[in-house]
Amino acid sequence: MWDQLPELILTLIFDHLECRDRFSVDRTCRSWRRALAAPVLWRSITIFIDRDLRSDSSPTKQLAGQYGQYIRKLELAWSRPYILPSETRATWNIRAKEGVEFIAVIKNKAVQLKQFVLTDWFFGSNWNHRSKLLYAVAHFLRCQRNLTSLSLLNANLGVSDVLRLFRAVSWSCGNSLEYLDIRGAFKDWQAPHSNSRYLQYLERLHTLTTFKLDYPALSDLALNSLALAAPKVLRELHISVRDSDARQHTIQDAAWHNLVAVCPQLTVSYTIVNISHYEDISYLLVPSVPLSRFHMYGGHVWDQSRSRNFRTTIGLLISYYSKSLSEVMLQLRNNREQLDDLLVSLVERCKRLTNFQYNGIIRSVGTLQEILNLQIDNKTSFRTIHVKPSTVNLRNRGALDEINYNYNHRMLDRGIDFRIDGPALSFC
């Protein structure tokens, strides 16, 4: 019965199987084997080095030898990417050795990838086959000619390790790479922003349109390298800024101005995590940044000897970026500042704002009504408003019900995604 299923149905079923299970399918019957040979099943695969490559006769390596030529997106990861006790290191050395052998298999198949991803790598310490595995990956990347996307998200490598991979890609795919994500690629406190090799490799990426990175990888020199590499091509910079990042350096407004001059379609996104104080944020908010998306997560802990001064931070957003902001997310936990008037001003003056999310305290129901009336009167163009303050207040529950009754259908008729998320609102 099962061997009589149409090949298309079998292909759809096999698409949900991991490599180990596909190996069993391959040994079942001829019709299943024919269905398994469909190129679409092998366009995108994820290999967990410590789980899928367990022996010289690994099913995954055998399947790669049979169908590897169809792979266009490859992700290499570790299923348990944390530091293990020293007595288990020998096992992980063996896994890394088998990773080298797997890469040799797909390299021999002359695989040409479109996308390559390294995520959550187990490189917390030095161990024997670490350099061999990285060398094999770099050598494989050096043979690629059509790579358009490279992600090293949370790879947690040293600067020299990342630059080894970066060098290979910049030499082989400098005229094809369009997407690069190096957020979390470098170990904490390692800042490559002024490294001459890093800057040199950036200058070779002539087709780069989207670049995602952490603040320690950004500098005046890095912006200048991007301007030289991809004039009129670079369109998106996603910058992550965390409290654990090395932030001793600042980026001058002139460097942003020069980059925007040669990349007029550039938009910038900031994601700020666990940084609350205005003094720690203001150096990011210089006038020439073409800021489109601003996400801020205030966190639970902050220096209580000084004010976080959110009012001034939001004031800068309104003053500098009212013509460019399209998305704002403010997660301001435990904030006691009066922000109602600035929230209304932010929504009213930022004409391109289409997505506004706020998790904090609103002190008056009238603030919500003002924001909603702006949309009803066609004075704003946002498509999404999610309001997420802290706790419920019985005194205002009736007012919230009235807001939902008066505005829900009117927003729905205009195609607005509006909701008040739980637990509820807190009005002091």
Automatic annotation (TrEMBL):
GO BP terms in the entry: positive regulation of protein ubiquitination
Species name: Cotesia glomerata
Pfam families: F-box-like (PF12937)
Database matches in PROSITE patterns: FBOX
Protein name: F-box domain-containing protein
Stored InterPro entries: F-box-like_dom_sf (IPR036047), F-box_dom (IPR001810), LRR_dom_sf (IPR032675)
Domain F-box: 1-45
Lineage of origin: Eukaryota, Metazoa, Ecdysozoa, Arthropoda, Hexapoda
Gene3D superfamilies attached to this UniProt entry: 1.20.1280.50, Ribonuclease Inhibitor
